[in-house]
Amino acid sequence: IGTTLVSNLVMNPRVMVRSRMTKYAPFGSLFEDVLNDQLAETRFPQVLRRLVQDAIFGVSVAKTGRAAKEGDGSGGEDPESYWKDPPEPYTDNVDFDDYILDGMARRREEASLEGNRFRVPFKWAVDVAGFDAGLLEKAREKQKDRDRDKERRPSDLWRNEPEIDPYCELIELAEIWLPRENMVVYLPGDMTAASGYLKEQEYTGPEGGQYDVLGFGQVPGSPLDLSPIGIIYDLHMLINEIARKVVRQARRQKDIVAFDGTAEDDARSIKASSDGQLVRVNNVDRLKQLSFGGIN
After folding, report:
1. Is it the case that residue 93 has pLDDT exceeding 60?
2. Which of 34, 54, 208, 256 is deepest in the core (most CB within 10 A)?
3. Model confidence pLDDT, tens digit, residues 121-165
């Protein structure tokens, strides 16, 4: 169901730039090409497809930001995007396991905080992102202790690699947007063990925050939507159960011709005949077609 819905709901988005003033038409055409190239370069169609698929099966969260670049402390860059080309704008998926939202909010607009967890190379976090080295080292040690015996998240069940990559040590951090204070703060991924902010800066992104949530079924008094699959799951299971039952009935179905012991020659003639062929028998009452099983 999800695959069918996604293929019909998501198309490759394109930007069209037009102006009512003729003199701006050449610039509009050029700007249109630039925007469409940017969408293709940032793989926005694939991101949009994953967003719709996440929304069908659960909660879909997107994050929009600008790739971080070394030596820029303006606060407009996102450390999570360390692997992208700066200062490239981007939109990416946020796994629901990593999404952070004010648990007391009845609507997202009322939330006092919103954020997500992410992982970056430890060396990059110290040398480039400008995080507090002392607090980062403490978070690093606590992460190692926690990863030895922690319960794995659903999104990690398919992964076999350890939390700490021996070739590129990754550390889990959390970015929290505080809309009332208009600030962005960074904490260790395990925020309960945080002894201070790794970094704090003024928020300079779009009004309403850098997060967008896609959903198809609003729930009164809840900031998150109910997924369509959650609504139709019972119906999905019932339809599949009925389908399996129908298949079993079809496999059990068989038609046979029963005949009297004295009508063996007639039975052989009928067995050797083709569909629609006329067959002469001595007594048709000694032959009877019986059907067993079949779709009810």
Report:
1. yes
2. 54
3. 887 777 767 787 777 777 777 776 666 555 555 555 545 444 445
- Residue in this structure with the two tokens 């079949």, named with its chain if needed: 294
Give the type of residue at 6. V
Task: State the pLDDT at residue 239.
Answer: 93
